[in-house]
Amino acid sequence: MSGFSWEDETRRTVLEGRAALERTAESLARSQRTAVETEQVGEEVVSELSAQRQTLLRSKQRLSDTDHELSQTRVLLRKMTLSVLTNKIILIVIILLETCILAAVCYMKFFHH
């Protein structure tokens, strides 16, 4: 009977070992599936981040272009403002000259006989 008990004990140990091995294999399979899913998610995230990076780079370039155009517009507006002021000054000088000429003509006509 002691041989039977030893055989039963060995069989039980082998079955427990096999059950542990199967649990370990299932755990490894789950871990592998999780790793594959995680890798897929990681690839999707990297792809999305790459697309967002490209979008940000394009936005940065457009912003730089807009800034350059604004600088050119400021220069143009300054030139236009200077031109308008110059035209106003010229008009004022012309009006003053015409007023002086008119006053001189009136003086000559009425007071210089």
Automatic annotation (TrEMBL):
GO terms for molecular function: SNAP receptor activity; SNARE binding. It is a single-pass type IV membrane protein. Keywords: Coiled coil, Membrane, Protein transport, Transmembrane, Transmembrane helix, Transport. Its main location: membrane. It is found in: Membrane. The keyword Protein transport applies. One of its GO terms (cellular component) is SNARE complex. Signal peptide: none annotated. The chain crosses the membrane at residues 89-110. One of its GO terms (biological process) is macroautophagy. Pfam families: V-SNARE_C (PF12352). Belongs to the VTI1 family. PANTHER family: VESICLE TRANSPORT THROUGH INTERACTION WITH T-SNARES HOMOLOG 1B, VESICLE TRANSPORT V-SNARE PROTEIN VTI1-RELATED. This is Vesicle transport through interaction with t-SNAREs-like protein 1B.
